[in-house]
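User: Show me a protein chain along with its predicted structure.
Assistant: Here is one chain, sequence first, then structure tokens.
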Amino acid sequence: MISLSTLPLLSAGIEHSAPALFWAIPFALILLQIALWPLLAPRFWIKNYPWVTLPLGAIVAVYYVFFRDGTSHMLHVGHEYLSFICLIGSLFVVSGGIHVGLPGGRFSPKQNVVLLAIGAVIANIFGTTGASMILIRPFIRGNAWRFSKFHIAFFIFIVSNCGGALTPIGDPPLFLGYLRGVPFFWVLEALWYKWMVGIAILLLMFYWIDRRHFRKETAEDQQAALAPNAVVFDGLQNLFFIFMILGAAFVTKPILVREAIMVAAAVGSYLTTPKKLHEQNNFNFHPIQEVGILFAAIFAAMVPALDWLSANAAALGINTTAGFYWLTGGLSAALDNAPTYLNFLSAAMGLFGLNVSNSAEVARFAVEHGDLLRTISISAVFFGALTYIGNGPNFMCKAIAEHEKVPTPSFIEYTGRYAIPLLGPVLIVTYFLVH
């Protein structure tokens, strides 16, 4: 998920204690439904997911507004949701106007690795959201002839998450750190070798699995995929709108101007893109509709869990890099990596009497306690790939893959069968690298 504002921590604006952890139950129920309904009753879920998730978010919103005097707090959350959906939605629309033609129509394992490596690099320029939305369709198209669930999993690992660890633009948690005062190039200097090792391991792992999968195809199909495969780009005028959206991300005042620019870019792209390109991309608004509805419920329902975390982080006794790495990472996957990063950055700075709202003190923390900041930063980014809700682009890639009718892991399957066994070794290696 994405927060691009310089507003206070999610717990700000509530002067009394955080709610009882009991109020995290609606959030848990939403996650449980996302995980189970598509498996147990997929048709019911497709027709009714708004009606079984939005009321749970509404319960939390009503509780905060009428029983906790938290109107300003929920308005802040609403603004964060608006920023999130405007960014995700505008990039979805604009990328839908960029068509990558593959006359050969088939990718080999080496070509897949090249595409994923490119995605890992440009994620630091266009953000993980932008890179994912630009590349997910050609990646699916180039592998449609033999697409497997591990393809979408590795795409999310590499392009939608880990690739964006080199710049503040790359991933939402790092952007929040930059807005709070972390120097722009600190991220590159502190995380480049962790990024390189993590991406290298993932690419090698993917190549080994994809090559084995490729060898199961007929000799004729293998030969067709290994033939020279020219790539044709159409709709490149939409790159202007992508840069327009990315530039808007840095606009903080006046309120809602950033969102208005993003919406204007999406409208401009949609109106100026030939209908033929949208048809070639099989473009429609269903994926962004699903993401918008589900994350409206998630944004509201996760507030009590985040407030409880913010209020109790210090009491949890976290004061080592190991503690910060595993807890920041685990909660980034279960809740959301952007606010989790900010809450644990606040907790880490509090150990030394520093204030996360003071940009000079944040910059000082980056210099004097870089080990903790490195730990929090890399774990928030990398662990965001453990679940579909850990980072905004993850669920969007899932929705697009399902819309394209290619094999896509369920919520539980993605985490249990792919993320933990395949991404887990990278997270362990990264843990030792932060020491």
